[in-house]
């Protein structure tokens, strides 16, 4: 249909679902009043919709005339907002992880050989643990803390061995 570039009447367009309504033309010009009434009705209905969605759709429809630049700008803007939100969430997550790690460091019962399920009762009521949100992420932070404790213990042992050799 599009490649043939044929012209269609309003009634043909409505039949093909290319038009939503047809306002018939008559000789006494009251069709203009009817057209205006329909236009106002549609505008009110459109205004009830989400303004961002309307803006994006309008940009998409105008993109051909605007050499796709408007749509590209809208897309880039939305993409940038998503990136910013993602970065903000990542920073927040890092802050929560640090706070939880700091808490774990203060709990003397947690050692390099501690087990998540057994240790969880020591911190599960804390705000640091609850603020992390995801149990799997909290467990990951816990396990990283255990690795850090193990490395500290190995370093301490290595220094002790060095001191024995120098004595």
Automatic annotation (TrEMBL):
One of its GO terms (cellular component) is cytosol. Residues 139-166 form a coiled coil. The keyword Cell cycle does not apply. It comes from the Eukaryota. InterPro entries: ClpP/crotonase-like_dom_sf, FF_domain, FF_domain_sf. Keywords: Coiled coil. The keyword Cell membrane does not apply. One of its GO terms (biological process) is menaquinone biosynthetic process. GO terms for molecular function: 1,4-dihydroxy-2-naphthoyl-CoA synthase activity. Transmembrane segments: none annotated. Pfam families: FF. Gene3D superfamilies: 2-enoyl-CoA Hydratase, Chain A, domain 1, FF domain. This is FF domain-containing protein.
């Amino acid at each position: 249909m599009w490649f043939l570039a044929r012209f269609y009447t309003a009634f043909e367009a409505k039949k093909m679902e290319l038009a939503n309504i047809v306002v018939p033309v008559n000789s006494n010009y009251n069709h203009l009043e009817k057209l205006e009434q329909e236009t106002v009705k549609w505008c009110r209905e459109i205004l009830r919709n989400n303004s961002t969605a309307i803006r994006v759709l309008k940009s998409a429809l105008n993109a051909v005339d605007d050499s796709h630049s408007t749509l590209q700008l809208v897309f880039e803007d939305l993409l940038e907002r998503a990136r910013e939100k993602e970065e903000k969430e990542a920073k927040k997550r890092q802050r929560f992880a640090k706070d939880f790690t700091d808490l774990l460091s203060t709990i003397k019962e947690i050692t390099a050989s501690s087990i998540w399920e057994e240790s969880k009762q020591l911190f599960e009521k804390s705000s640091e643990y609850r603020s992390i949100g995801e149990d799997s992420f909290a467990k990951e932070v816990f396990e990283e803390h255990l690795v850090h404790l193990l490395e500290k213990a190995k370093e301490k042992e290595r220094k002790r061995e060095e001191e024995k050799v120098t004595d």
